Structures
1.
Amino acid sequence: MSAFPPPPDPTLEPVVEAPLPVPVARASGRPSRRAQIEEAVLPPLVALLLAAVVGDLLILSFGQSPGAVYRLLLDGTWGNAYGFGQVLYKATTLVFTGLAVALGLRAGLFNIGAESQLAAGGFCAALVGLVLPPGIPALFVLPVYILAAALGGGAVGAVPGVLKARFGAHEVIVTIMLNFIVLALLNYLTSTRLHVPDTLHTAEIRSGQLPRLSDMSSAFQGSAANAAILLAILAMIGLWWFLFRTRRGFELRAVGLQPHAAEYGGIDVGGVTWRALALSGAIAGLGGLNYVLGYKHYYEEGFATGAGFLGIAVALVGRSHPIGIGLAALLFATLSQGGLAVNALVPKQMVDVLQAVVILAVATSVPEVRRLLRMRRGGGGDR
Amino acid sequence: MSATSPSPVAPAIRLRDIVKSFGPVQANRGAELEVAHGEIHALVGENGAGKSTLMRVLAGMYAPDSGLMAVEGRDVTGWSTADAIAAGVGMVHQHFMLVPTLTVAENVVLGSELTRGPVLDRAAAEEAVRKLSVETGLAVPPAAKVADLTVGQAQRVEILKTLYRGAKILILDEPTAVLSPPEVRELWGVLRSLKQSGSTVVLITHKLDEVIEVSETITVMRAGKTVARMATAGTTPQAIARAMVGRDVALALDAEYTGTPMPELGAVSALLEVRDLAVAGANGQPVVKSATFSIAPGEILGIAGVEGNGQTELIEAIAGLRQYTGSIALASRDLATLNVRARGDAGLSHIPEDRHDRALILDYTVAENLILGQQHRFTRGAALDTPRMLEHARELISRYDIRPDNPALAARALSGGNQQKIVVAREMARDFKVLLAAQPTRGVDVGAIEFIHARLREARDQGKAVLLVSADLAEVLALSDRVAVMYGGRIVAMLPRASATPETLGPYMTGAERAA
């Protein structure tokens, strides 16, 4: 660097008359529709790409060709009606648990209890099914089943909610502990009182079984996919409407974003807390219908083991938005079903690892990609 | 790199054409600063003008994207904080960077500790601090814990710490924000004596009375650029304000108090009556102690006082955000059993002091923020009545000149002044009898201050009762019909506007005197 340039005119007079300052905010206002979509779609895509690269390395480390493994994975899932039906079946449960976790996250709460709430919902639905007389069409008894499943899951969810609102007990601890307690209790009840001898499940329910996809097309023969898919779609729409269109949703998200501001805005933060966790549990509980009404028609120990925990990943990858959760549920269901398909080439567990990689990739790359997008567009930021 | 040799005529600081961006935001875009040896130089500008950024560049905390920096004639462009400290440039930050559990002496020597073997030589540290304290006139008790100091004392420790490291060029970022008037006067004394002993001082501020009182030269920044440089002796507050904002503004500090003094209380029934109010702080100790006062319709009661003397808790208790004992009545109705929402419905409006934590949900849109607290009035069945929300937003945006005028924009994207306008618009637009206004113009630019003050006066003129809390004494004096002072959780003085001046209020604000 050369010598310092000469100083400005040293007279003590105003040196410049600058124009009015530009407004701090982007004058153009709301980011364009295109920018919004970019921001919603690009980051998860980048994350998936990243996960795929890691997946390639994993597959190569087993001495297989990534192309062959992925082809096999797709063939075994979206490539045939049975595989696709299984993906839909698994995705249905994941939509419910994903929505449940997402609702909690929107209220600033981390519900780790979807696992036991799902089981409690299925259990209560099965109990109702055992006492209902046989042969009533599904449409008539469905509301009763929905109520039972929602109450079962909701009751399990309300416990951490009330403990948090009343005593400040952290919901993560309480929901984790309740998972053990509730699952053990359900297993006890099933294996001592309700089981069919020599099995771990209850007797079959006698009415309200949901139609399967295979009833409509024989191509789906053997797959568990059933009309609970429609319930999942309704739940997605319903939760979207609740979160973004109702006053209660407005208040719930306010509590999640800024509890102090919510309190200032006359919102009963404790009330929102326990209601959010109860509702979250209820949604998870509805997931039990997929198995009990749609697939096996009884409650069985561990009928959806892991689906509650995978719901956390679905909610995170789906960015706590109903549409995102639908897509993320399909993704995780595909991986989980695909694990069986690729078993011939690589260990099935490799797909579990891949699921974990997806979660890590989303957690690390999504905020970064969004930041880059915003920078490139020249949007806000901190001074 | 060939630095020019230091010469006695080189200015202490010369910054040329400094550009510094954070992501898409250009905090500095061609900023200039030239400070002569041994002068007290004021760097003024509105919030967000880029003053602090420029000084952090000078102190080595940020490297400039482009531009040139010279200290004592030496090219120091892009140096580090360590370089800056070694060259005698020290910055005293707006937010104290002290360890509360350590003593004054330990804090001062932190980072350059005097040791005897592996142990800290506490006695030597205290002696060094005592000596420096005497030399500079910065009186502090070296052995006291920083947690036990007053804010004014803590600030002196900050300055001592900087001087202890050998600073000859001292940068002070908004040093008076937390001080009472007598403490401010003491600070000026210290700065002048530092100047006598050959130090150079750069004072960042947006308070024009301070600039006039203590500085010799003024540099004005606006929107990241230097727009004016002038000698203090030849200028006026109006001229400085014009340079800061780019247009003429009414200044709070010389705004005439325009209210009519209230009739004797008792002649009209008070809209807000607070009796024996006591509020406990986070660890159970009392933070508001037996506060009793009332506000009549058409009256602004201003509460002056150094921050942290119970004002926040007083306001939040009235708003229903904190437990309290004693009674609060709004238009003769006891509020004890009413929650926040019910208090709002009963006619209580509240501009909270913390815009980003309480008053706004930054990720919500302008339209959504404009109904916060009244969301139960904007419903159609279970759903929010979106068309009515938008209509409400459009009306308030135009009436309160909120920019940009887009109701769907997230509040986060607006400038501080416009965010505050959202809060003011929302709270003034609801049907209210009593308005709690806590620091209503904090961190807001001069133009918006003028606007918000006009709205508060308007509320008063419509017969509302206004409780104003402000750390800015000039603001309290410009708006209030009566002035109370809070110190140590108590209301220690209640003066009619006519007898309230910085001189009469000062002793109460420091706790030197109490009446009431």
2.
Amino acid sequence: MTVVVNSRDDFTLENYRRVAIGGESVAIGPEARTTMAEGRANFLRLLESDRTQFIYGVTSSFGPRARLTIPPGEQRAHARAFGFRRGNWARGFGGGYLDERVVRGVVFARLANFVAGNSKARPVVAERIAAMLDGPLPPVPLDGEVGAGEVLPMAHVMHGLRRGGLEEGEANPLMNGSPVSAALAADTALQACHRLDHAEQIFALSVEAFGAPLDAYDDELDDLWGDEDEASALAALRRYLAGASPGGRPSAAVPASYQVLGRVLGQAHRAVTGVEDAARVSLRSVTDNPVYVPPDDGHPLGRAFSTGGFHNAMTYPALNALAAAWADLTLLAQRHVTALCAVAASAPPARAPRFAAGAATGLEPVLAALVEDARAAAMPTLLPAAVNDPQDDVSSPVFSAYRRQAWAAECFDGAQAVLAAGASQALLHAGRQPAPPLQDLLAAIRAIFPPLEASPPDPGARGGELAAALARWAVTGSGPFGTSR
Amino acid sequence: MTVVVNTGDDFTLANFLRVSYGGEPVRIGAVARRSMTAGAGHEPTVDSPGRETIRRARWAAPGADFGGGYLDAAVVRGILFARLASLVSGHAGVRPSVAERVAAALDGPMPRVPLDGQAGTGEALPLAQVLAGVQRDGLREGEVEALLGGAPCSAALTADAAIRARHRLQHAEGVCALSIEAFRAPLSAYDEALDDLWGDRHETAALRGLRRYLEGAGTAERRFHQAPVSYRIIPRVLGQVHRAVAAVEKAATVSLRSVTSDVVYVGDELGRPAGRAVRSGGYHNGMAYPALNALSAAWADLALVAERQVTALNTAETSGLPVNLVAPGAPGNGTYAYGWAASGYVEEARAAATPALLPGAVEDLHADVLSPAFGAYRRERRAAECLDGVLAILAIVSSQALFVTGRDPARPLLPLLSFVRSVFPPIDGTGERDLSADGGRLQQALGAAALSGQLAAQPRSARRRSGGRRTAAF
């Protein structure tokens, strides 16, 4: 299949998923080609009306040398040289590489500036960008990508672009703007949605394993608390606990970590929604600098002017908030595991196990490190303290925010794996089955991490396998856990 | 005036402000009395987890918490107000007389609530202090738990932050616009075409805020090429602040009216002994502290961008303005050293932006998740204070840049400039001045304005002879 883009409205999360994860090609639609051709013609009329007017990167030099003007006769050569110089500006190295699916996403997000004619470029330039998606994409190092705007990572992303014949105003829209932030937000949003759903299933399994009272998830609380995200979390828990037996759940001994589950998961819902909103807005934003605005009544030739669009200020805070939400859930998972072990230790097993493990799986010791690492990852990325030069005096922290969120999520996947295995073990110890909606989940967990009674697995390796499966399913949204969001 | 509360709809930010800072009393309305009468009289139908015993002990002898200064009395009033939301709903199972006792506590002096040591499971620890003045004789089974349970502290702390944040943001937009004028930055970076091109409502609000201040700004003397990044991205950074402020306002609005009692009585049977009791984790507010964290980070980032603008204005090679903005013929280093001072505030703000997460400590096996609301609230206050410091410096430097070049800003900024200069006159090289004290006064004035919404000049001692307070509304 091919995703056809005709307007900014085509830059949706679903189309992002098709291109970035699904590997689909992109075609520039006829409406977009017409709009871009008109935009290009209008821009050239504006440029020809006065080639001494300031248009960043077209009649001027770049970055800290922006005040230097380019003589009219040299402006085309300036544009053609730009492509190569910028292409060679890729400087970051180390720290591993961005997953290729995300690089595909950046290329897709890059096109949003073009299709509405704001890029000043001819349709052929957009078509060259789209064609990049049909071949291998260059590696983009994760370290050293913090600068003003996103020129540094874009220099890597655009490394393979055919640049021959670029004309005035066509070089900057390749590198400027903030498509990297858009793609990083979208990539995170798609995973976060699945990760949260899996978390709700595993926490519900923990509720069953502990025998926690169900009234902490009562539907009356939706209205009494009056928050839509907490209502979503409560609804999800109720969905997975449908049909659970209400008996044998004494409230006297229930830890706070079970009672507050709906409210902590509500905050995770809020954080996921925040990243989704950032992704949706960013994907369709026109963030080019300079931006071309088509003619209107007051400006018959249109306008080309400098903006701060290259600085995406909504993505990194949204990623920060999500990292903090994962960190808090990681702590909550650790508390659940402790509670499961404690309650199992105080109750006789339902049947004699070969190993007197109670709810312990051997994985518990890793939780302390996972919690601490998740909390470290939740330290927010703020605007970088470093200054490149007096002109480029504020940088974008989005790469750091993306990596920290990914680290926090990885820690949370690990904690979820430990909790899932612990809940499975506790259910075996108590001789209970969970509510019907959770039985497939339990089977999937036990397929990877069998209960200790059945076999003496290498708990570390199997726990790692379970965590890896959770991470993989967060990307694909598939797997035996399924999704309900 | 008196605030009459009948239902959750009465627990608004506006009523919170009237009660907390306005000092108005609260009366329990007839509708609320009927709801409470119908809902009262339940005996707990769930097993006691022992928490009530602990809470009773804490209330009987509060004071395990200490240090770190004290919560403002106005915020303590706000907590008492927020406490009533659960009670008047009728879901907490208390008699009207219990709510009236809480309301009556607002007529007396507020107890002191220490800021340190308030991270427990739920909010019973600070509530034991807040409710110290509430009559407790004759309270029935469950009523103590209803008073000490729930999450009214989070609601009040968030509401307090929300009230200040909206005004602080408005004033920050004004100071940034003044800086744009002082630097003579091109206005295209704030063009209305960007509203649609960026497509984000918060960034649109920021762009509109800046354009409102810059209306009528001259275009003739502006630099022909683009301004430094810190000037071009300011609408996007302010947009993020708008987003954070909106999130805190939403958290406050939701939290103030939430029924968060640990045990709520619900169902069609409400009002009968058979009414269903639901024990939940309502006492843990999961939305307030992340919203406060995000606001702290937004203040810290705005402080950094403001500091970069201070540097740009102070640097002649960048701004084209006189070196260090020294007035012609005047001695000294002008506003140069303020740039250094701004760096200190930025670093403090960044430290305060470290998020308050769920505390790592555990009280016991049952009290295994604690509330970080107090920590988040204190960090936000500190980040905001540091931002006020940087904004004061940016206002000083902007005022000085306009002074040394003999320019006026756009007309909508004249009241702001007048306010700034009433507190901090331009450095003209004449006479001895305590520039540290003058700067501090401007920071304090901005802090006070965050609460009042009015930029009220703090008369300098040297000026007391000639005038009183001057205000500028924005």
3.
Amino acid sequence: MQQLTRRGLLAKGWKAGGTLLGVVTAWTSWGLLRPLRASGASGKINVGSASNFQDGAAVYNGVGRFWIANAKGNLFALSQQCPHLGCRVPFCESSGRFECPCHGSIFDIGGEWIAGPSPRGMDQLAVSLDGDNVIVDTSKRLDGPSRGANRFLSDPKGPPCAGNG
Amino acid sequence: MTETPSAKVAQTELGDAERLALEPGVSPVSHGLSARVRDGEAWRSVFRHPGLDTPRGRALKSFSNVFLHIYPVKVPARVLRMRYSWRLGYIASVLFGILLGTGVYLMFFYTPTVTSAYGDMQQLRTGVGFGQLIRNVHRWSAHLMVLVVMFHLVRVFFAGSYKRPRQFNWVLGLGLLAITLGFSFTGYLLPWDQLSYWAVTVGTNLVDYIPVIGSLVRGVLIGGDQIGQPTLQRFYALHVAVLPVSLAMLLMVHIWRVRKDGFAVKRGGIGAFAEAGTGVPGEEPVVLPALMATTGSDEAEPRVRLLGVVDRESVTAEERLTDDTVFTWPHLLVRHGVVGLGTLALVLGLGIAFAAPLRGLANPNLTDERAKAPWYFVGLQELLSRFDPLVAGIFVPAGLFLILGLLPYIDRNPATEARNRKVAITVFSIMLIAAVGLTVIGALFRGPGWKFVVPWKHWYLEL
């Protein structure tokens, strides 16, 4: 190892100090700028009795911004945000499917991908039963099922909604 | 006051007689109040140059003015030609200035909260004198600036001006492009209407496709998992503070380097110093012995004072037969003035003729069927609708920026003329055509549900 001169030590010290300052700045910035915990609508939402949700129907919850969908007896809380680019996915009554008006992704009643650019099915929020009441935990979010799951796939009930014509 | 060696400046105190003696051929300045003011101490304390219309006077004017200092005193004559650069960089700077001016006006009437932002925009439109005009000019200048910066990049590529010694200035230019896009994108959200909300929703969701860190970056950007108050506040802070300062600083370095690199003068010219500094192995710069002063030869290591480093070629290149340079003032500045005023006239005309869009209040529960990313990201969106998100969302854009950033270091071909750069020009042209094609398809040929439409029947592009 080369002999450490005073100048060499100081030069190294400057660099070490600069690096340290950079790390501290980055750490502070991260603390300040990291995503805030969603407030207001977050947490558990009671959406009422499970018997309110008919098979093949989807009910919208405006507070938590999700759909409660009954797919062959399975209850799903489906986030309204399309996994593709975040548009709100409405439920099309006539076809019985979720149809994204922005970029044409189509999902079945269980939120599984049928067609369009979405990389996966609709994202889900955790659902639990408290007695007969359905509780949706909006802070627990799961990625939607991958393409081709096709557990609830059936022919569309009727014509698709406007915009996908 | 005593006479100091630097009292040459005292020529500013000269009367007409002395001035005439110094500058033969100059007609005497008329006497009267204005002459007395201009010869007075107060005036001269501000404007030190005598302001004479002679070569020396023009040079002094540039030397003694901090704002003119960004220009060299003289520039190569070809810089004056419009076809030399199309003034694209300059026009982009002018647009930035217009955006700063109009932006400050807008700040007087705008509060970045989800409850008041949209109302402020309406109030600006209907209740503030010239409010609508200022907003229109701001918006059209912003779109134009993105466009002009892109044209500037394309122009510099085809001119081969990214080559040694300007490699790093090309990289800085890419940084300026990124900041410009950031400006436009953050500004998009501020009106808080349906167009803002869904364009930014779609735009920020593109970030999600970056593997591993994507959702984290998106979270930091929008401050949550959906667009809301934190997003508006962050975008506002970025738009009015972080980005303007970053752009101004980077632009300063960019322009300074344009000047120091000698306005694309060939090797050995004004850019000789920059070239020597950029260094190429095996091509040692010449240190002229006459410029080195040693302090005694008995010392083991003579202390050397380096006064100048010149490229070997430039020593001979110095013997230029004709002076091909002209004074910046007035030749270049007059042209810049005309182009600057033309740019201002253009955006004013656009602002008077076309209103900036303002749709309904942002509604997270009502997706706009026409939701498209801003036009400069629409090509990416089109790509994303056709290919795997990892390919379209990550590899293509990241690869593009990486290739562009490394271009001056990859492309070792020193030629600047098109016939000797066939490969580079072919590859770049294909990429350019692909980018323009995808953008045109995404912007004009896509309607609700991203279905194919023809623009002459249905128009789904809003700026």
